[in-house]
Write a structure and sequence with these properties.
By secondary structure, the protein is mostly helical. It folds into two domains: 72 residues; 57 residues. This is YbaN family protein. Pfam families: DUF454. It comes from Paludibaculum fermentans.
Length: 130
């Protein structure tokens, strides 16, 4: 094995895992897909140009990924959609969880607050396209 092979294999494996989670996130409410697509693209850029190219050309994930690369951020509409879906899922799951464990429900809400603050103040807002 060459010196960089271990790192390349690790990044490829992590990229595949992130891409799989992104696909699951498309159909499972509350599980994000954008973050996993970005993580997969990051890993594939460091390990597999073929997989990175596939992800950029993908009909579901490609446009969002290319827009993020061009603008370095998420549109206001995208942020609102992310916040709406996240908080809908968090509130429903926390209400159910509260019947079993109130501390876990509170922890879920606190993590959603951290996610909200991150999305609002850390992730750049890109202009909406006309």
């Amino acid at each position: 094995m060459k010196p960089g092979d271990t790192r390349r294999i690790l990044y490829t494996g992590l990229g595949c895992l992130a891409a799989a989670l992104a696909f699951v996130g498309v159909v499972v409410p509350g599980l994000p897909s954008t973050e996993f697509v970005l993580a997969a693209a990051y890993c594939f850029a460091r390990s597999s140009p073929r997989m990175e190219s596939w992800l950029l050309r993908h009909r579901w994930f490609g446009p969002t990924l290319r827009r993020f690369r061009e603008t370095g951020g998420i549109t206001r509409t995208g942020k609102l959609a992310a916040l709406g879906s996240m908080w809908s899922a968090v509130l429903v799951s926390s209400a159910i969880l509260a019947a079993v464990n109130r501390k876990a429900a509170l922890a879920s809400i606190l993590m959603a607050c951290v996610g909200t603050l991150t999305l609002l103040f850390v992730v750049r807002t890109a202009p909406d396209r006309a």
